[in-house]
Amino acid sequence: MVRAVGRLAAGSGRSVDLDIDGFEVSGDVPADDGAAMSGVTSIGLLAASLSACTAMSSRTFLQRWHIEPSRVQVEVRMHGGRDAVMERHVVVDAALTPDMREQLAAVVDETPVTVLLRDSVTILTRISSGPVASGR
């Protein structure tokens, strides 16, 4: 079970104090696109959830296949609106065969957060692997 609590102070402020399983985070809903942010947005937290879940599932995949646990980075960009799209780029420093990249793609498409979101938002995934992928 996950427990999250959001608290807004009295008044017209738009900054929310979040408690997620005992971890404190500041959230914000800017009044307009040009406003300074004082914390993460709700959509940012959603993108971060997909990113974290994907990174952990990718690491588990590498461990199960006895591949050196290299750096894994997952960048998620969210394009909101009625037909929202999340672009997910998974970068694994390890060299993967084409077959292993296909298997990793299948794992990534079944992460718990992906399964929760995929009926509501389009998730486009790209996977890069090897030292070239990480820019080294």
Write up this protein.
The chain has 136 residues and is α+β, with helices and mostly antiparallel strands. It has two domains: 30 residues, no CATH class; 88 residues, K homology (KH) domain (GMP Synthetase, Chain A, domain 3, 2-Layer Sandwich), CATH 3.30.300.20. It has three helices and six strands. β2 and β3 form a beta hairpin. The chain starts with a strand and ends in a 7-residue tail after the last strand. The mean pLDDT is 90.
Strand order of the largest sheet: 1-2-3
State the fourth-level CATH superfamily of the largest domain. K homology (KH) domain
SS-based class: alpha+beta
* CATH topology heading of the largest domain: GMP Synthetase, Chain A, domain 3
Q: Which blocks of ≥5 consecutive residues have pLDDT under 50?
A: none
What is the end-to-end distance?
A: 40 Å
Keyword list:
single chain, alpha+beta, GMP Synthetase, Chain A, domain 3, 2 domains, three-stranded antiparallel beta sheet, three-stranded mixed beta sheet, 3 helices, 29% helix
